[in-house]
């Protein structure tokens, strides 16, 4: 059941969500080292369109302040089998009046790709947004050179809505960004199974 539309929606609550493969929990200062290590991977920078590098201290300050914000939700993706922090999922740009937000996910290296971790993490945070918080619309952008991610988003239920031409300049080449979105009633058809936190 999708939560009723409300002008009081908020990401002030920072939940822990448990799935079969991963646990999503609020980010903490200790996660900054995993993010800093990921920043050294050129694949991670490229797929996320990240041009800037941040020091470990800057990342620690960033992660330590995430709990203060009720307009965004930053959760670490922890692999259950190993206890390793493998990425993050973020709901951001909350528009209370239009009951919408943006979504992004980053896995901290190619060794975590193709194992279902990102798909499950995405389904879990989307389920929280639609079913608990009461968001109506979630949108994202995916770069044209990342068809693997686009296939995952389509599998979850996101619909391609348009293309931002030449949105990213990477290594001297202009790259399009595809805009995709998922609505609450569409989520009912595509949602995955999420168990309560243990």
UniProtKB/TrEMBL annotation:
Pfam families in alphabetical order: Acetyltransf_3
Domain N-acetyltransferase: 22-181
Cross-referenced SUPFAM superfamilies: Acyl-CoA N-acyltransferases (Nat) (SSF55729)
GO molecular function: acyltransferase activity, transferring groups other than amino-acyl groups
Keywords from the named record: Transferase
PROSITE patterns, per database record: GNAT (PS51186)
InterPro entries cross-referenced by the UniProt entry: Acyl_CoA_acyltransferase, GNAT_dom
Name assigned to this protein: Protein N-acetyltransferase, RimJ/RimL family
Upper lineage: Bacteria, Bacillati, Actinomycetota, Actinomycetes, Micromonosporales
